[in-house]
Design a protein that fits this description.
This protein has 409 residues and is mostly beta strands. Helix content is 11%, strand content 54%.
Length: 409
């Protein structure tokens, strides 16, 4: 099992190194523009470097802040290099400081252009940090300030200076203060104001990498086989044969799957939920000697009825529009439907309960058109008995075929 997990992690690492080159351009420090192929990583966070090559057969080069002033792929993204003052105070509630003022540092960054016009909007994003900048004509971009802080009474407050900054910037075309009173510090809401201002100013507008309001979602049905291994042991060693090992079986497993395609890295990330049902039955003859040294033979039956709910994060290796490999990892919640183990001496019955916890799962798979085939390993042991003298050991892995009714490209 450990080897399988290691192979999955190594495979995941290799998948992260995949490259997806698209036609774009770079501009160097002298203003020379070169058509090229850029590795489109569909960055969520602003990069400090990127990979590109001048042709399909050329070697891959690295573009960085010291050598490139601008790079982009038409209609997808555009990054420009600027030296700006930026407040990198995090808005994480556990790391907020006690000053309402910007703690600015001068830094050279690739800013992502959101709205290109006479008055343009840029964005900088990193982990737990989001900053917007505006640029008038060819002036240096200025930060739109928003930050959370604690006042002297340790009350959580917000500095919403960005609302005043934008009102002062846009009021010349008749935009009203009420439009800014409830403005959120978000790309969608701020972008709308920049578009409205430039339209009222009769400025040409280019909206780059327009946020897609449509959530990409697909669903399907799944069926497969699950390998089941169950044993129970008497912890007090009352008998000479204290362990009952039930038959290892492949049992059918059916369910449904709901998948949300995350808007990062060109659709390589997915989050899925796959509620499924499985039943396992096994009758085992148990030979044991009791405290009176009398040999007994007893039929013991296990009857498991389980609903399992895995929450899974998938990473796809895109081969083409209809084919992809993927690895997955997640957590699985198991719900018991009156499972039992019965047939013990004196008619004793052991009810199987489920520890209310999440167990880890890992998988690898291949998706083609509307079908997906994968194998999943389930770690952990959520089963326990309601009789403290007995403990269980339960392990399983499975193969699964999924048919998706919707296949978003």
């Amino acid at each position: 099992m450990k080897k399988a997990v290691l192979l999955i992690l190594l495979f995941t690492f290799k998948l992260h190194a995949q490259q997806h080159f698209e036609a774009g351009y770079v501009i160097d420090n002298k203003g020379n523009k070169s058509e090229c192929l850029i590795n489109n990583e569909d960055w969520r966070f602003n990069p400090e470097k990127f990979s590109y090559k001048m042709s399909e057969t050329d070697i891959v080069k690295e573009g960085n802040l010291s050598e490139v002033s601008e790079f982009g792929i038409n209609n997808k993204f555009l990054f420009k290099r600027f030296t700006v003052f930026i407040d990198k105070t995090l808005n994480d509630i556990n790391r907020i400081n006690e000053t309402s003022k910007a703690v600015n540092i001068e830094e050279t960054l690739f800013l992502k252009q959101v709205i290109s016009s006479k008055t343009s909007l840029y964005k900088y994003e990193s982990l737990n940090l989001l900053r917007f900048f505006y640029q008038e004509s060819t002036n240096s971009p200025q930060q739109l300030l928003y930050k959370k802080y604690y006042n002297s009474q340790m009350e959580l407050k917000e500095n919403n200076l960005f609302k005043k900054q934008l009102f002062d910037l846009f009021k010349s075309v008749g935009m009203k203060k009420e439009q800014f009173d409830h403005l959120k510090y978000s790309e969608n809401e701020i972008s709308k104001l920049f578009i409205e201002f430039n339209q009222l100013s009769n400025n040409q507008i280019v909206e780059i990498n327009k946020p897609n309001a449509k959530t990409k979602f697909k669903y399907g049905i799944s069926a497969g086989l699950r390998y089941q291994a169950l044993s129970i042991s008497n912890v007090h060693e009352t008998f000479d044969n204290n362990t009952i090992v039930f038959d290892k079986k492949m049992v059918p497993n059916v369910g449904v799957e709901f998948v949300l395609l995350l808007p990062y890295n060109n659709g390589r990330w997915e989050f899925s939920v796959n509620p499924s049902y499985l039943q396992y039955k096994s009758l085992k003859q148990w030979d044991y000697v009791d405290t009176g040294s009398i040999v007994h033979s007893q039929n013991v039956e296990a009857d498991l009825k389980l609903i399992q709910l895995p929450f899974t994060l998938k990473y796809n290796y895109l081969i083409n529009n209809n084919n992809k490999l993927y690895v997955s990892a997640g957590l699985m919640y198991t719900h018991d439907l009156n499972s039992k183990i019965f047939g013990f001496p004196n008619g004793e019955q052991i009810d199987i309960d489920i520890i209310q916890q999440f167990d880890a799962k890992f998988g690898v798979g291949y998706e083609f058109s509307n079908f997906a085939l994968d194998v999943n390993y389930y770690l952990g042991n959520s089963l326990k008995t309601d009789v403290i003298s007995w403990k269980s050991d339960y392990n399983n892995f499975g193969f699964r075929l999924v048919y998706f009714f919707i296949n978003e490209k």
